Amino acid sequence: MKNAFQQVFGTPPAGVWAAPGRVNLIGEHTDYNDGFALPIALPHTTVVAAGRRSDGRIRLHSAQRDGTVTELELAGLAPGTVSGWAAYPAGVLWALREQGHAVGGADVHVDSTVPVGAGLSSSAALECAVALAVDELYGLGLGAAELAGIAQRAENVFAGVPCGSMDQMASLCCTADAALWLDARTLARRQVPFPLEDQGLRLLVIDTRVQHDLADGAYSARRVACERAAELLGVRALRDVPAEGMTTALECLPDELRPLVRHVVTENARVTEAVSRLDGGDAAALGPILTAGHASLRDDYRVSCPETDLAVSAAVEAGALGARMTGGGFGGSVIALVRDTEAKSVGEAVKGAFGAAGHRTPAVTAVWPSGGAGRIA
Ligand code: GLA
Fold first, then answer.
1. What total of structural domains would you count in the chain?
2. Which run of H or E residues covers position 10?
3. How far is Cα 223 from Cα 256, in angstroms, rounded to an integer?
């Protein structure tokens, strides 16, 4: 990384920072409803080498792109002015300055192993690595939750994607061998031990290769519908709808909003149940909770697609303890919890089912709960 930076910018970087992508075990589409989530950080990371510049400009280069260096004037940054991948790092600098932090220019070289468009939060990983780098370059001393807020604002306002807080919190706050319990309303969090190997388990990520794009409107449509439902129910957010008596409470809502609320309420309960199973030392018990979560995302929240549905059903039929789509949906990835003895056969079965259905071969990778973002050199 240091050499690559030097080749592009002509000087050595001041440091190198890495931030991971994530998969969410359970608690999907709950973060912007002030609810709970349970992500883990992936071993896949976005790495940023960076150095200060004194002329108020940022220069951005990515090993995954064509060699072009994007050069921008900090003072001229505004939402809508930068498109493509550069909007994420530029948005972080913009968000920091907008909140009054004394941040100047920077040279930034990016390299990443987080697949783009696979629902594994490549954009959050990029934002968080840049946020950490700039925080240190300019001695801001911000904490993880503050940096996550900056990264989320960059995505929401600068890049125009109305995501919640989960991805950025996961990238910055996860620790190895644990899932991160997150309360998206208060940002309270706890590391919940998730020792896969000790229990003879594996977590597979199945990338369906159906490009998922949160900017395409379906995600924000769900979000707006949830806000409307909360307003009609007279609660601050759907997190405040009690599970007991829910069916009666929902009768005042238009038909199309009821299943959305049902998903959020039952999904929050699934997070609580999953945490209690993990606290009890029984990671295998997550299986049926994952599969129930998928049914809810498919039937009630309607954010799955034929490929994610097929990956889940084929994995479960082949002996997975449980499986579900992860992230925003409309494509992207599925996670499957499997016994290690069955990891290979489940992966093969899913690939076989995709072949038989005429879909592209999915990429199947075993992952483990990895550490969150930090300086690596
Ligand atoms: C995307 C968003 C997150 C979250 C998930 C769904 O990953 O970026 O904030 O809403 O979708 O749980």
1. 1
2. none
3. 14
Give the pLDDT score at 38. 98
Quote the CA–CA distance of 58 and 28 in Å, as a whole number.
Answer: 35
Is any ligand 1 atom within 6 A of the Cβ of residue 164? yes
Separation of 98 CA from ligand 1 center, angstroms?
A: 24
CATH number of the domain residue 45 falls in: 3.30.230.10
DSSP codes joined into one string, 327-364: SS-SSSEEEEEEEGGGHHHHHHHHHHHHHHHTPPPPEE
Confidence of residue 219 (pLDDT cuts 50, 70, 90): very high
Is the Cβ–Cβ distance between 271 and 27 less than 8 Å? Answer: yes
Has residue 326 been placed in a domain? no
Residue 376 lies in a domain: no
Instruction: Answer for the pair 64, 136: CB distance below 8 angstroms, yes or no.
Output: no
CA of 210 to the centre of ligand 1 (A): 17
The C-alpha angle with vertex 330 and arms to 354 and 342, in degrees rounded to 5, equals 40
Q: From 22, 25, 31, 34, give the residue whose CB has the most ligand 1 atoms within 8 Å, as the site to mutate.
A: 31
Which has the closest alpha carbon to 132: 122, 142, 120, 121?
142
- What is the rounded CA–CA span in Å between residue 203 and residue 214? 24
Please count the residues of the chain: 377
Q: Find out whether the beta carbon of 342 lies less than 6 Å from any atom of ligand 1.
A: no
Task: Write the DSSP assignment of 187-199 as a string of letters.
Answer: --EEEEE--TGGG
Q: How confident is the model at residue 338 (pLDDT cuts 50, 70, 90)?
A: very high
Q: Which atom of ligand 1 is nearest to the CA of 24?
A: 12
Is residue 102 in a domain? yes
Are the beta carbons of 135 and 64 closer than 8 angstroms?
A: no
Q: Could you tell me which residues are beta bridge partners of residue 178?
A: 193
Is the minimum distance from the CB of 267 to ligand 1 under 6 angstroms?
no
Identify whether 167 is a catalytic site residue. Answer: yes
Domain of residue 41, residue span: 2-191
The Cα 24–Cα 44 span in angstroms is: 14
pLDDT reported for residue 66:
82
Question: pTM, whole model, 2 decimals?
Answer: 0.97
Answer yes or no: is 201 within a domain.
no
Confidence grade of residue 353 (pLDDT, cut at 50, 70, 90): very high
